[in-house]
Design brief:
This protein is of the alpha/beta class. It has ten helices and nine strands. α2 crosses α10, α5 packs across α6 and α5 packs across α10. It binds N-carbamoyl-L-aspartate (NCD).
Length: 309
């Protein structure tokens, strides 16, 4: 039995295969509409979500399966003091696969140790978000053709942004050699992650304070919001919240084939006038999240293209 807690749980070959399967599902959805008939996804969200939760629900339903779960742990026995381990043990009787999001880093890992069925991490605190990484990779495949060959810039909250932490390591594994990091001093990529990127993967990191300094050098611009819920100090949040706004004016110097990604939700960091720009692909990125999650569910349940024997 396999779980997906962090992107490293998958080999590069497995990720490439998932991306290819996701593209096939995108192009031929009717071939997959019954492969999870009779299967149940438990969707356990201890933290708010729109895209991750509903794209998983939609993915399972589009595969012919069913979904149970909660979007607010206050309505579950967690409220009565039940431990995560007990909740997870029981969900193994009621469902075939679990996706969970939790504010505590490491909670999905702990859950996987008590689970009799596959557990997928739908985001744990400021730590990891492996299915967003898969979503980002299939988006890069769709719009840039190849993964690991471009100059990538991450902009915004690189300290607490779990989507950044998962994606940057995975792109380094795929061979990306150049990353540009655009963030205020207070929200820089954690030192330990920077060290790992440089020492393990030999990447070159350029850190700047302003997007304008580097916009003409970027192939893939990955925007993120300030993770207000992970700040301890409201005043710090207010000071930084509008720091890194992308607008049409800033895009004037950008490459004509650059793509603009964002895991969403956006708050203030991308002006609405950017949405009509042909380089903006963040809504298509959310769309691809359904197809890659369909591929992942079939893999972990070993059905459809991943059926054994
Ligand atoms: C991200 C998350 O939850 O980490 N959202 C998502 O899953 N698409 C990004 C964010 O909340 O900023």
């Amino acid at each position: 039995m396999r779980h997906l807690i962090e992107p490293e749980d998958l080999t590069l070959e497995e990720i490439e295969h998932l991306v290819a399967t996701g593209m096939d599902i995108f192009n031929n959805p009717s071939n997959y509409s019954e492969v999870c008939k009779g299967k149940i996804l438990a969707s356990l969200f201890f933290e708010p979500s729109t895209r991750t939760k509903f794209s998983f629900d939609s993915a399972m339903m589009r595969l012919g399966g069913n979904v149970i779960g909660f979007a607010d742990a206050e309505t579950s026995s967690t409220k009565k003091g039940e431990s995560l381990a007990d909740t997870i043990r029981v969900m193994g009787y009621y469902s075939d696969i679990i996706v969970m999001r939790h504010p505590k880093e490491g909670a999905p890992k702990l859950a996987s140790q008590y689970s009799s069925i596959p557990v997928i991490n739908g985001g744990d605190g400021g730590h990891q978000h492996p299915t967003q990484t898969l979503t980002d990779l299939i988006t890069i495949k769709r719009f840039k053709g190849e993964i690991g060959k471009h100059s990538v810039a991450f902009c915004g909250d690189l300290k607490y942004g779990r989507t950044v932490h998962s994606l940057i390591r995975t792109l380094a594994r795929f061979g990306t050699k150049e990353f540009i990091l655009v963030s205020p001093e207070e929200l820089k990529l954690p030192e330990s992650l920077k060290r790992q990127l440089v020492e393990k993967y030999g990447v070159e990191l350029t850190e700047v304070l302003y997007l304008e300094e580097v916009i003409d050098k970027i192939d893939i611009l990955y925007m993120t919001r300030i993770q207000k819920e992970r700040f301890f100090n409201e005043a710090d949040y207010l000071k930084l919240k509008d720091s890194f706004m992308l607008n049409r004016d800033k895009l004037k110097e950008a490459k004509p084939d650059m793509i603009i990604m964002h895991p969403l939700p956006r708050v203030n960091e991308i002006a609405y006038d950017v949405d009509d720009d042909s380089r903006a692909v963040y809504f298509e990125q959310s769309e691809m999240g359904v197809y890659i999650r369909m591929a992942l569910i079939t893999k972990l349940l070993e059905v459809g293209p991943y059926a054994r024997g």
